[in-house]
Protein backbone atom coordinates (compact mmCIF):
# COMPACT_ATOMS: atom_id res chain seq x y z
CA UNK A 1 0.00 0.00 0.00
CA UNK A 2 1.34 3.39 -0.90
CA UNK A 3 1.70 5.78 2.00
CA UNK A 4 -0.42 8.90 2.12
CA UNK A 5 1.54 12.14 2.31
CA UNK A 6 0.90 15.86 2.47
CA UNK A 7 2.41 17.33 -0.69
CA UNK A 8 3.08 20.92 -1.60
CA UNK A 9 1.31 21.56 -4.87
CA UNK A 10 4.17 22.89 -6.97
CA UNK A 11 5.62 21.48 -10.19
CA UNK A 12 9.41 21.10 -10.45
CA UNK A 13 10.70 20.80 -14.02
CA UNK A 14 14.27 19.81 -14.92
CA UNK A 15 15.76 22.12 -17.56
CA UNK A 16 19.18 20.47 -17.83
CA UNK A 17 19.62 17.63 -20.32
CA UNK A 18 18.48 14.27 -19.02
CA UNK A 19 15.34 12.33 -18.33
CA UNK A 20 12.12 14.26 -17.73
CA UNK A 21 9.01 13.10 -15.94
CA UNK A 22 5.39 13.70 -16.76
CA UNK A 23 2.39 13.88 -14.48
CA UNK A 24 -1.01 12.48 -15.37
CA UNK A 25 -4.01 14.13 -13.82
CA UNK A 26 -7.29 12.37 -13.14
CA UNK A 27 -10.68 13.92 -13.52
CA UNK A 28 -12.89 14.89 -10.63
CA UNK A 29 -16.43 15.72 -11.55
CA UNK A 30 -19.87 16.04 -10.17
CA UNK A 31 -22.57 13.72 -11.45
CA UNK A 32 -25.39 16.07 -12.47
CA UNK A 33 -29.05 15.33 -12.25
CA UNK A 34 -30.39 13.94 -15.53
CA UNK A 35 -32.53 16.51 -17.35
CA UNK A 36 -34.34 15.80 -20.59
CA UNK A 37 -33.36 17.99 -23.60
CA UNK A 38 -36.81 19.56 -23.73
CA UNK A 39 -36.55 20.48 -20.08
CA UNK A 40 -33.05 21.89 -20.48
CA UNK A 41 -34.11 24.10 -23.38
CA UNK A 42 -36.94 25.53 -21.34
CA UNK A 43 -34.85 26.28 -18.28
CA UNK A 44 -33.18 29.64 -17.73
CA UNK A 45 -29.50 29.42 -16.55
CA UNK A 46 -30.42 30.23 -12.96
CA UNK A 47 -33.19 27.67 -13.00
CA UNK A 48 -30.87 25.08 -14.51
CA UNK A 49 -28.35 25.73 -11.77
CA UNK A 50 -31.02 25.33 -9.15
CA UNK A 51 -32.23 22.15 -10.84
CA UNK A 52 -28.79 20.51 -11.00
CA UNK A 53 -27.45 21.99 -7.77
CA UNK A 54 -24.34 23.25 -9.59
CA UNK A 55 -23.80 27.03 -9.63
CA UNK A 56 -22.49 28.95 -12.63
CA UNK A 57 -18.91 30.17 -12.00
CA UNK A 58 -18.43 31.95 -15.34
CA UNK A 59 -19.13 35.45 -14.00
CA UNK A 60 -16.64 34.97 -11.17
CA UNK A 61 -13.95 33.76 -13.58
CA UNK A 62 -14.55 36.60 -16.03
CA UNK A 63 -14.32 39.19 -13.25
CA UNK A 64 -11.34 37.91 -11.30
CA UNK A 65 -9.55 35.39 -13.52
CA UNK A 66 -7.30 38.14 -14.89
CA UNK A 67 -5.86 38.75 -11.42
CA UNK A 68 -4.55 35.17 -11.19
CA UNK A 69 -0.99 34.76 -12.48
CA UNK A 70 1.39 31.99 -13.44
CA UNK A 71 4.69 31.97 -11.57
CA UNK A 72 7.91 30.45 -12.87
CA UNK A 73 10.75 30.18 -10.34
CA UNK A 74 14.15 29.37 -11.84
CA UNK A 75 16.73 27.70 -9.61
CA UNK A 76 20.44 27.21 -10.12
CA UNK A 77 21.57 23.92 -8.60
CA UNK A 78 25.19 22.84 -8.55
CA UNK A 79 25.94 19.59 -10.31
CA UNK A 80 28.86 17.57 -8.87
CA UNK A 81 32.22 17.63 -10.59
CA UNK A 82 33.30 14.54 -12.47
CA UNK A 83 35.14 11.73 -10.69
CA UNK A 84 38.76 11.89 -9.65
CA UNK A 85 39.66 8.76 -11.61
CA UNK A 86 38.97 10.33 -15.02
CA UNK A 87 41.77 11.81 -17.06
CA UNK A 88 42.21 15.56 -17.10
CA UNK A 89 41.38 15.84 -20.77
CA UNK A 90 38.01 14.17 -20.03
CA UNK A 91 37.32 16.48 -17.09
CA UNK A 92 38.30 19.86 -18.51
CA UNK A 93 36.02 21.69 -20.93
CA UNK A 94 38.83 22.08 -23.48
CA UNK A 95 40.66 19.87 -25.95
CA UNK A 96 44.20 18.95 -24.74
CA UNK A 97 45.59 20.58 -27.92
CA UNK A 98 43.93 23.89 -27.13
CA UNK A 99 46.49 26.60 -26.20
CA UNK A 100 44.51 27.41 -23.04
CA UNK A 101 44.32 23.78 -21.89
CA UNK A 102 47.35 23.97 -19.56
CA UNK A 103 46.10 27.24 -18.07
CA UNK A 104 42.70 25.71 -17.28
CA UNK A 105 44.37 22.54 -15.97
CA UNK A 106 46.49 24.58 -13.58
CA UNK A 107 43.57 26.78 -12.50
CA UNK A 108 41.12 23.92 -11.84
CA UNK A 109 43.70 21.46 -10.55
CA UNK A 110 42.82 19.00 -13.29
CA UNK A 111 39.14 18.95 -12.31
CA UNK A 112 36.10 19.97 -14.26
CA UNK A 113 34.63 23.11 -12.68
CA UNK A 114 31.24 22.75 -11.01
CA UNK A 115 28.46 23.19 -13.52
CA UNK A 116 25.09 24.76 -12.93
CA UNK A 117 22.09 22.53 -13.62
CA UNK A 118 19.12 24.91 -13.83
CA UNK A 119 15.67 23.75 -12.81
CA UNK A 120 12.31 25.45 -12.84
CA UNK A 121 9.27 25.20 -10.61
CA UNK A 122 5.83 26.33 -11.63
CA UNK A 123 3.12 27.69 -9.37
CA UNK A 124 0.35 30.24 -9.16
CA UNK A 125 -0.33 33.54 -7.47
CA UNK A 126 -2.79 36.42 -7.44
CA UNK A 127 -2.56 40.19 -7.57
CA UNK A 128 -3.70 42.02 -4.44
CA UNK A 129 -2.87 45.64 -5.40
CA UNK A 130 -3.04 47.55 -8.72
CA UNK A 131 0.65 48.51 -8.41
CA UNK A 132 1.84 44.92 -8.61
CA UNK A 133 1.93 43.18 -5.21
CA UNK A 134 1.30 39.45 -5.59
CA UNK A 135 0.62 36.70 -3.03
CA UNK A 136 1.83 33.14 -3.50
CA UNK A 137 3.27 30.25 -1.47
CA UNK A 138 6.76 30.50 0.00
CA UNK A 139 7.61 27.03 -1.27
CA UNK A 140 6.88 28.09 -4.86
CA UNK A 141 9.77 30.58 -4.93
CA UNK A 142 12.03 28.97 -2.30
CA UNK A 143 15.67 29.17 -3.42
CA UNK A 144 14.81 30.75 -6.76
CA UNK A 145 17.33 32.97 -8.53
CA UNK A 146 14.84 34.34 -11.06
CA UNK A 147 11.08 34.64 -10.59
CA UNK A 148 8.92 35.38 -13.62
CA UNK A 149 5.24 36.31 -13.47
CA UNK A 150 2.99 35.79 -16.51
CA UNK A 151 -0.42 37.44 -16.73
CA UNK A 152 -3.43 36.08 -18.58
CA UNK A 153 -2.88 38.66 -21.36
CA UNK A 154 0.56 37.10 -21.99
CA UNK A 155 2.55 39.95 -20.46
CA UNK A 156 5.59 38.73 -18.49
CA UNK A 157 7.46 40.48 -15.71
CA UNK A 158 10.57 39.78 -13.70
CA UNK A 159 9.34 39.76 -10.09
CA UNK A 160 11.10 40.95 -6.97
CA UNK A 161 10.70 38.79 -3.87
CA UNK A 162 9.61 41.20 -1.14
CA UNK A 163 9.67 38.49 1.51
CA UNK A 164 8.81 34.87 2.25
CA UNK A 165 7.67 33.31 5.52
CA UNK A 166 8.25 29.54 5.55
CA UNK A 167 6.30 28.99 8.76
CA UNK A 168 3.06 30.20 7.19
CA UNK A 169 4.11 29.30 3.61
CA UNK A 170 3.25 32.80 2.38
CA UNK A 171 5.39 34.92 0.06
CA UNK A 172 4.96 38.40 -1.41
CA UNK A 173 6.21 39.35 -4.89
CA UNK A 174 6.28 42.74 -6.64
CA UNK A 175 6.21 43.44 -10.36
CA UNK A 176 6.77 46.82 -12.01
CA UNK A 177 3.31 47.48 -13.45
CA UNK A 178 0.30 49.71 -12.88
CA UNK A 179 -3.48 49.50 -13.08
CA UNK A 180 -3.46 45.73 -12.74
CA UNK A 181 -6.60 43.67 -12.11
CA UNK A 182 -6.90 42.63 -8.49
CA UNK A 183 -8.87 40.12 -6.43
CA UNK A 184 -11.36 40.95 -3.72
CA UNK A 185 -10.34 39.82 -0.23
CA UNK A 186 -13.00 38.01 1.80
CA UNK A 187 -13.42 36.83 5.38
CA UNK A 188 -12.80 33.06 5.77
CA UNK A 189 -14.37 33.14 9.24
CA UNK A 190 -17.75 33.72 7.61
CA UNK A 191 -17.44 30.69 5.33
CA UNK A 192 -19.22 27.49 6.25
CA UNK A 193 -18.52 23.81 5.75
CA UNK A 194 -20.47 22.61 2.73
CA UNK A 195 -20.32 25.89 0.80
CA UNK A 196 -19.11 25.98 -2.79
CA UNK A 197 -15.59 27.28 -3.49
CA UNK A 198 -13.56 27.78 -6.68
CA UNK A 199 -9.82 27.49 -7.33
CA UNK A 200 -8.01 29.18 -10.23
CA UNK A 201 -4.40 28.30 -10.94
CA UNK A 202 -1.92 26.53 -13.20
CA UNK A 203 -2.08 22.79 -12.43
CA UNK A 204 0.64 20.97 -14.37
CA UNK A 205 1.36 24.29 -16.08
CA UNK A 206 -2.11 24.70 -17.65
CA UNK A 207 -2.66 28.42 -17.08
CA UNK A 208 -5.87 29.82 -15.60
CA UNK A 209 -7.50 26.46 -14.96
CA UNK A 210 -10.75 26.62 -12.99
CA UNK A 211 -11.83 23.84 -10.60
CA UNK A 212 -14.58 23.77 -7.98
CA UNK A 213 -15.79 21.88 -4.93
CA UNK A 214 -16.97 22.48 -1.39
CA UNK A 215 -15.41 23.32 1.95
CA UNK A 216 -14.90 19.99 3.71
CA UNK A 217 -13.67 21.31 7.08
CA UNK A 218 -12.29 24.42 8.72
CA UNK A 219 -9.44 25.11 11.17
CA UNK A 220 -7.81 21.84 10.20
CA UNK A 221 -4.51 21.16 12.01
CA UNK A 222 -1.92 19.27 9.97
CA UNK A 223 1.30 17.46 11.00
CA UNK A 224 4.32 19.79 11.15
CA UNK A 225 2.14 22.80 10.28
CA UNK A 226 2.10 24.53 13.65
CA UNK A 227 0.47 27.90 13.10
CA UNK A 228 -2.03 27.60 10.27
CA UNK A 229 -5.71 26.60 10.72
CA UNK A 230 -6.15 25.24 7.18
CA UNK A 231 -9.35 25.27 5.15
CA UNK A 232 -9.92 21.75 3.86
CA UNK A 233 -11.76 21.34 0.55
CA UNK A 234 -12.47 18.70 -2.07
CA UNK A 235 -11.55 21.13 -4.87
CA UNK A 236 -9.29 19.38 -7.42
CA UNK A 237 -5.87 20.89 -6.70
CA UNK A 238 -2.73 19.51 -8.33
CA UNK A 239 0.97 20.37 -8.68
CA UNK A 240 1.11 23.91 -10.07
CA UNK A 241 -1.96 25.12 -8.15
CA UNK A 242 0.29 26.20 -5.26
CA UNK A 243 -0.17 29.85 -4.40
CA UNK A 244 -3.41 30.25 -6.32
CA UNK A 245 -6.57 31.75 -4.84
CA UNK A 246 -9.56 29.95 -3.36
CA UNK A 247 -12.76 31.93 -4.03
CA UNK A 248 -16.18 31.82 -2.44
CA UNK A 249 -19.31 32.32 -4.57
CA UNK A 250 -19.22 36.05 -3.85
CA UNK A 251 -15.99 36.24 -5.82
CA UNK A 252 -13.93 36.86 -2.67
CA UNK A 253 -10.62 35.17 -1.98
CA UNK A 254 -10.83 33.25 1.30
CA UNK A 255 -7.66 31.18 1.01
CA UNK A 256 -4.37 30.36 -0.74
CA UNK A 257 -4.19 26.80 -2.09
CA UNK A 258 -1.12 25.26 -0.52
CA UNK A 259 -1.03 21.45 -0.36
CA UNK A 260 -2.77 18.19 -1.08
CA UNK A 261 -3.10 14.87 0.73
CA UNK A 262 -2.14 12.23 -1.78
CA UNK A 263 -0.91 8.69 -2.38
CA UNK A 264 0.30 9.41 -5.89
CA UNK A 265 1.30 13.09 -5.97
CA UNK A 266 -1.97 14.03 -7.68
CA UNK A 267 -5.34 15.13 -6.36
CA UNK A 268 -7.30 12.54 -4.36
CA UNK A 269 -10.08 14.53 -2.75
CA UNK A 270 -8.23 16.39 0.01
CA UNK A 271 -6.72 19.82 -0.52
CA UNK A 272 -5.78 22.50 1.97
CA UNK A 273 -5.74 26.30 1.78
CA UNK A 274 -4.20 28.94 4.03
CA UNK A 275 -6.95 31.29 5.30
CA UNK A 276 -6.54 34.64 3.55
CA UNK A 277 -6.89 36.46 6.89
CA UNK A 278 -3.70 34.75 8.09
CA UNK A 279 -1.94 35.41 4.79
CA UNK A 280 -2.79 39.13 4.80
CA UNK A 281 -1.27 39.55 8.27
CA UNK A 282 1.92 37.98 6.99
CA UNK A 283 1.80 40.08 3.80
CA UNK A 284 1.59 43.35 5.74
CA UNK A 285 4.60 42.47 7.89
CA UNK A 286 6.65 41.29 4.92
CA UNK A 287 5.99 44.52 3.04
CA UNK A 288 6.76 46.68 6.06
CA UNK A 289 9.80 44.89 7.49
CA UNK A 290 10.68 41.96 5.21
CA UNK A 291 10.09 39.42 7.98
CA UNK A 292 7.39 38.19 10.37
CA UNK A 293 7.51 38.47 14.16
CA UNK A 294 5.67 35.95 16.33
CA UNK A 295 5.30 35.40 20.05
CA UNK A 296 6.04 32.36 22.18
CA UNK A 297 5.37 31.41 25.80
CA UNK A 298 7.51 28.29 26.19
CA UNK A 299 5.10 25.43 26.85
CA UNK A 300 4.32 22.06 25.35
CA UNK A 301 0.62 21.29 25.10
CA UNK A 302 -1.47 18.29 24.15
CA UNK A 303 -5.02 17.46 23.22
CA UNK A 304 -7.58 16.76 25.94
CA UNK A 305 -9.76 13.70 25.47
CA UNK A 306 -12.71 12.60 27.58
CA UNK A 307 -10.55 10.56 29.96
CA UNK A 308 -8.15 13.43 30.64
CA UNK A 309 -11.04 15.84 31.11
CA UNK A 310 -12.54 13.47 33.69
CA UNK A 311 -9.18 13.13 35.48
CA UNK A 312 -8.78 16.89 35.79
CA UNK A 313 -12.42 17.55 36.64
CA UNK A 314 -13.14 19.50 33.47
CA UNK A 315 -16.82 19.62 32.49
CA UNK A 316 -15.93 19.31 28.77
CA UNK A 317 -12.76 18.18 26.91
CA UNK A 318 -11.91 21.69 25.72
CA UNK A 319 -8.66 23.65 25.93
CA UNK A 320 -4.95 22.88 25.67
CA UNK A 321 -3.35 20.74 28.40
CA UNK A 322 0.11 21.94 29.43
CA UNK A 323 2.39 18.90 29.64
CA UNK A 324 5.71 20.72 30.17
CA UNK A 325 6.95 24.25 30.83
CA UNK A 326 10.26 25.59 29.57
CA UNK A 327 12.61 26.51 32.39
CA UNK A 328 12.93 30.31 32.77
CA UNK A 329 10.54 30.83 29.85
CA UNK A 330 7.60 33.28 29.82
CA UNK A 331 5.14 30.64 31.06
CA UNK A 332 7.39 29.58 33.94
CA UNK A 333 7.86 33.21 35.00
CA UNK A 334 4.09 33.72 34.94
CA UNK A 335 3.52 30.68 37.18
CA UNK A 336 2.07 28.33 34.57
CA UNK A 337 2.77 24.67 35.32
CA UNK A 338 2.24 21.21 33.90
CA UNK A 339 -1.35 20.10 34.42
CA UNK A 340 -2.85 23.51 33.77
CA UNK A 341 -5.42 23.63 31.00
CA UNK A 342 -5.41 26.82 28.94
CA UNK A 343 -9.04 27.75 28.16
CA UNK A 344 -8.68 31.26 26.72
CA UNK A 345 -6.04 33.61 25.34
CA UNK A 346 -7.30 37.13 25.99
CA UNK A 347 -10.85 36.99 24.58
CA UNK A 348 -10.28 34.02 22.26
CA UNK A 349 -11.49 30.59 23.31
CA UNK A 350 -9.01 27.72 23.00
CA UNK A 351 -11.16 24.91 21.63
CA UNK A 352 -8.30 22.42 21.43
CA UNK A 353 -4.52 22.28 21.53
CA UNK A 354 -4.16 23.11 17.83
CA UNK A 355 -5.72 26.55 18.43
CA UNK A 356 -3.12 27.72 20.94
CA UNK A 357 0.05 28.08 18.81
CA UNK A 358 -1.62 30.40 16.31
CA UNK A 359 -3.32 32.46 19.01
CA UNK A 360 -0.02 33.01 20.83
CA UNK A 361 1.91 33.63 17.61
CA UNK A 362 -0.44 36.47 16.63
CA UNK A 363 0.38 38.44 19.77
CA UNK A 364 3.04 41.14 19.41
CA UNK A 365 6.24 39.93 21.15
CA UNK A 366 6.73 41.57 24.55
CA UNK A 367 3.00 42.14 24.98
CA UNK A 368 1.13 41.02 28.09
CA UNK A 369 -1.66 38.52 27.51
CA UNK A 370 -4.34 37.16 29.83
CA UNK A 371 -4.58 33.38 30.00
CA UNK A 372 -7.65 31.79 31.49
CA UNK A 373 -6.68 28.39 32.86
CA UNK A 374 -8.23 25.43 34.66
CA UNK A 375 -6.30 24.43 37.80
CA UNK A 376 -7.29 22.37 40.85
CA UNK A 377 -10.92 22.17 39.77
CA UNK A 378 -11.47 25.86 39.09
CA UNK A 379 -10.84 28.71 36.67
CA UNK A 380 -7.96 31.12 37.21
CA UNK A 381 -6.52 34.03 35.19
CA UNK A 382 -2.78 34.45 34.70
CA UNK A 383 -1.02 37.44 33.11
CA UNK A 384 1.89 36.43 30.88
CA UNK A 385 4.36 38.52 28.87
CA UNK A 386 5.20 36.84 25.60
CA UNK A 387 8.68 36.50 24.15
CA UNK A 388 9.83 36.74 20.55
CA UNK A 389 9.82 33.50 18.62
CA UNK A 390 13.14 32.56 17.08
CA UNK A 391 13.40 30.26 14.06
CA UNK A 392 14.28 27.25 16.24
CA UNK A 393 11.97 27.96 19.17
CA UNK A 394 8.37 26.81 19.41
CA UNK A 395 5.35 28.96 20.19
CA UNK A 396 3.61 26.16 22.02
CA UNK A 397 4.52 22.70 20.87
CA UNK A 398 1.61 20.39 20.33
CA UNK A 399 2.06 16.68 21.09
CA UNK A 400 -0.35 13.81 20.83
CA UNK A 401 -1.21 11.77 23.89
CA UNK A 402 -1.23 7.97 23.85
CA UNK A 403 -4.64 6.48 24.51
CA UNK A 404 -5.69 3.78 26.83
CA UNK A 405 -5.77 2.29 30.49
CA UNK A 406 -2.00 0.75 35.92
CA UNK A 407 0.27 -2.15 36.76
CA UNK A 408 3.84 -0.87 36.96
CA UNK A 409 7.07 -1.74 38.75
CA UNK A 410 8.90 1.50 39.57
CA UNK A 411 11.87 2.82 41.51
CA UNK A 412 13.01 6.37 42.43
CA UNK A 413 15.48 8.03 40.13
CA UNK A 414 19.11 8.17 41.23
CA UNK A 415 20.72 11.62 41.60
CA UNK A 416 22.60 11.02 38.35
CA UNK A 417 19.40 10.05 36.52
CA UNK A 418 17.60 13.13 37.83
CA UNK A 419 20.47 15.30 36.60
CA UNK A 420 20.53 13.64 33.21
CA UNK A 421 16.76 14.01 32.82
CA UNK A 422 16.78 17.59 34.17
CA UNK A 423 14.07 16.79 36.73
CA UNK A 424 13.93 17.17 40.51
CA UNK A 425 11.98 13.94 41.15
CA UNK A 426 10.36 11.01 39.42
CA UNK A 427 9.85 7.25 39.34
CA UNK A 428 11.51 5.14 36.68
CA UNK A 429 9.23 2.52 35.13
CA UNK A 430 10.95 -0.89 35.20
CA UNK A 431 8.01 -2.96 33.95
CA UNK A 432 4.58 -2.09 32.58
CA UNK A 433 1.55 -4.32 32.18
CA UNK A 434 -2.24 -4.21 32.51
CA UNK A 435 -3.85 -0.76 32.37
CA UNK A 436 -0.48 1.05 32.24
CA UNK A 437 0.74 -0.99 29.28
CA UNK A 438 -2.63 -0.57 27.58
CA UNK A 439 -2.25 3.18 28.01
CA UNK A 440 1.16 3.13 26.33
CA UNK A 441 3.41 3.32 29.39
CA UNK A 442 6.78 1.73 28.61
CA UNK A 443 9.86 0.62 30.60
CA UNK A 444 12.20 3.60 30.74
CA UNK A 445 9.41 6.16 31.12
CA UNK A 446 9.66 8.46 34.15
CA UNK A 447 6.43 9.10 36.07
CA UNK A 448 6.50 12.68 37.37
CA UNK A 449 2.94 13.33 38.60
CA UNK A 450 -0.58 11.97 38.94
CA UNK A 451 -3.45 14.32 38.13
CA UNK A 452 -1.05 17.23 38.32
CA UNK A 453 0.36 16.27 41.75
CA UNK A 454 4.08 15.32 41.92
CA UNK A 455 4.99 11.77 42.99
CA UNK A 456 8.35 11.11 44.67
CA UNK A 457 8.10 7.51 45.95
CA UNK A 458 6.53 4.17 44.99
CA UNK A 459 4.43 4.29 48.16
CA UNK A 460 3.05 7.67 47.24
CA UNK A 461 2.22 6.38 43.76
CA UNK A 462 0.42 3.33 45.15
CA UNK A 463 -1.62 5.39 47.65
CA UNK A 464 -2.80 7.82 45.00
CA UNK A 465 -3.75 5.04 42.63
CA UNK A 466 -5.79 3.35 45.39
CA UNK A 467 -7.72 6.56 46.04
CA UNK A 468 -8.22 7.40 42.37
CA UNK A 469 -11.75 7.51 41.03
CA UNK A 470 -11.93 5.49 37.81
CA UNK A 471 -9.12 7.07 35.83
CA UNK A 472 -5.93 9.05 36.34
CA UNK A 473 -3.69 11.26 34.24
CA UNK A 474 -0.01 10.33 34.54
CA UNK A 475 2.59 12.94 33.61
CA UNK A 476 5.52 11.02 32.19
CA UNK A 477 8.82 11.97 30.68
CA UNK A 478 10.08 9.97 27.74
CA UNK A 479 13.44 10.96 26.30
CA UNK A 480 13.29 14.77 26.40
CA UNK A 481 9.51 15.18 26.11
CA UNK A 482 6.82 15.33 28.79
CA UNK A 483 3.25 14.23 28.17
CA UNK A 484 0.08 13.39 30.10
CA UNK A 485 -1.18 9.84 29.61
CA UNK A 486 -4.76 9.02 30.61
CA UNK A 487 -5.08 5.60 32.30
CA UNK A 488 -8.42 3.89 32.75
CA UNK A 489 -8.29 1.98 36.03
CA UNK A 490 -11.74 0.45 35.70
Give the number of helices. Answer: 13
Instruction: List unreliable stretches of 5+ residues.
Output: 14-48, 81-92, 99-110, 391-405
Largest β-sheet summary: 7 strands, mixed
> Average pLDDT, to the nearest integer?
79
| Annotation, overall tally of beta strands | 30
* Helix fraction bin: 10-25%
CATH architecture of the largest domain: Beta Barrel
Rg to the nearest angstrom? Answer: 28 Å
Q: Supply the CATH class of the largest domain.
A: Mainly Beta
CATH topology of the largest domain: Thrombin, subunit H
Span of the ends, CA to CA: 38 Å
Number of domain modules: 3
Summarize this entry quickly.
It is elongated and about 80 Å long.
What does this structure look like?
By secondary structure, this protein is α+β, with helices and mostly antiparallel strands. The chain folds into three domains: 1-292, Thrombin, subunit H; 295-399, PDZ domain (Pdz3 Domain, Roll), CATH 2.30.42; 408-488, Pdz3 Domain (Roll), CATH 2.30.42.10. The chain is built from 13 helices and 30 strands. The chain is elongated, with a radius of gyration of 28 Å. The relative contact order is 0.10. Residues 14-48, 81-92, 99-110 and 391-405 have low confidence and may be disordered.
Amino acid sequence: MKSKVLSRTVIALAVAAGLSSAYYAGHHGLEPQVIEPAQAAALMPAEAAAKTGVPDFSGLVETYGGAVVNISARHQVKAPAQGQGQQAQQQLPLDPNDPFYQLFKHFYGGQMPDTQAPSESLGSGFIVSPDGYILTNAHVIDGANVVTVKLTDKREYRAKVIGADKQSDVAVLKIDAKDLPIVKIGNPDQSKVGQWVVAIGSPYGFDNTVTSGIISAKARSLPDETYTPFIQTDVPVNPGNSGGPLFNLEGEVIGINSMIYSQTGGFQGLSFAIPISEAMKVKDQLIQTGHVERSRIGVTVQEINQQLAKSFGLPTPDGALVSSVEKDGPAAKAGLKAGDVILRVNQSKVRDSSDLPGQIADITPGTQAQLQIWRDGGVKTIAITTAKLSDKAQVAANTDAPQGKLGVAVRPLTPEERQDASVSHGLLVMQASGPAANAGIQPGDVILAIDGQPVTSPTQLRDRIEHANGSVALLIQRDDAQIFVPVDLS
